[in-house]
Write a structure and sequence with these properties.
alpha/beta, Rossmann fold, 2 domains, seven-stranded mixed β-sheet, six-stranded parallel β-sheet, 13 strands, about 50% helix, ABC transporter substrate-binding protein
Length: about 325
């Protein structure tokens, strides 16, 4: 009886071990299941071509993914894309840029759609907008200019309202007051900028210039930079050209990291059966103006300067 009992235990132990091994193998197979991803990107030249190349390089780094790409031109038709997707057994689509997004909305494939490489607002599709994350902006502000207590931002609800909600939470965590001025046209925007520039205090206030078409850069940047220089006010934005012209710092996308993250979102829409959230860009590089920093009394060591991606002036 003891022999039989022992034999039963051995058999049961073997069965349990087999079940465990089978479960582990099954999980690994699920994880390793290849997802067929199609990437649409626009025909581009010059610096824009480099942007899309870097994004594509990042996309290619994602493992367990079969990736095919297609250039979208002015002559590309939605029905051609639909046939191409069907012939290649595509499971999910990643659309880069406005032109690709425009044609993607016309597709009949019914496949999950992820969007990127464009300035977007939440629209029912998962993806990443070119707008920089307010959380990352305020992190760098706190690190570079810790005496700043208030941040002012002029914005339109249509373009930037969703980011203001994120910014309010990020500011509250850092005990920074966020003053947001919602406008509906250029005239209101210029009026608010004029009001802000009359009341800001040296080293205590900062102005955030978002990617918002409601107030074009050329309409306000020269005046804001001049007033900021005279009053020792921190200015930051989403455009490295602004840092070159005199803002303290600017953040801009790391396109390769963005590409890899976009591919991950696209794949998860297949594996997790639907992730339709739009995110601001959090993989950001930092450009800083050393001359402006010095004028503001912010002096960075050589080792600190080496941590920045771009330092202006370049000489």
């Amino acid at each position: 009886m003891k022999v039989v009992s022992g034999l039963k235990r051995v058999i049961q132990w073997t069965i349990n071990l087999s079940l465990i091994i089978f479960s582990v193998i099954s999980v690994q197979l699920v994880r390793a299941e290849t997802v067929h991803l199609a990437v649409l990107y626009p025909e581009a030249s010059g610096s824009y071509s480099k942007v899309f190349k870097n994004i594509l390089d990042g996309i290619e780094e994602l493992e367990d993914t079969h990736i095919i790409t297609r250039v979208v031109t002015k002559k590309t038709r939605a029905e051609d894309i639909d046939n191409w997707l069907k012939n290649n057994q595509i499971q999910t689509v990643l659309s880069l840029g406005q032109r690709s997004y425009k044609i993607s909305k016309q597709l009949d494939s019914g496949l999950p759609l992820t969007i990127g490489a464009l300035v977007a607002t939440p629209n029912g599709h998962g993806g990443i907008s070119m707008d920089g994350s307010p959380e990352v902006f305020l992190h760098h502000l706190e690190n570079l200019a810790p005496d700043v207590q208030r941040v002012h931002v002029v914005y339109s609800e249509k373009n930037t309202g969703w980011l203001i909600e994120i910014a309010e939470q990020a500011a509250a965590k850092r005990n920074i007051e966020l003053f947001s001025y919602k406008v509906e046209n250029l005239k209101q925007g210029i009026q608010y900028y004029n009001e802000i520039l009359t009341k800001v205090e040296s080293n205590k206030d900062a102005i955030w210039i978002p990617l918002d078409r409601i107030v074009p850069d050329k309409a306000i940047l020269p005046k804001v930079l001049q007033a900021a220089w005279e009053k020792n006010i921190v200015i930051f934005s989403n455009n490295p050209i602004h840092a070159k012209k005199g803002t303290l710092f600017a953040l801009f996308p790391d396109h390769k990291l963005m590409g890899k993250k976009l591919a991950s979102i696209a794949v998860e829409q297949v594996r997790a059966k639907g992730i339709y959230k739009l995110f601001p860009t959090s993989d950001l590089k930092l450009a800083i103006n050393k001359r402006t920093a010095s004028h503001l009394g912010l002096n960075f060591s050589k080792s600190k300067l080496r941590q920045f991606d771009i330092v202006f002036p370049t000489r």
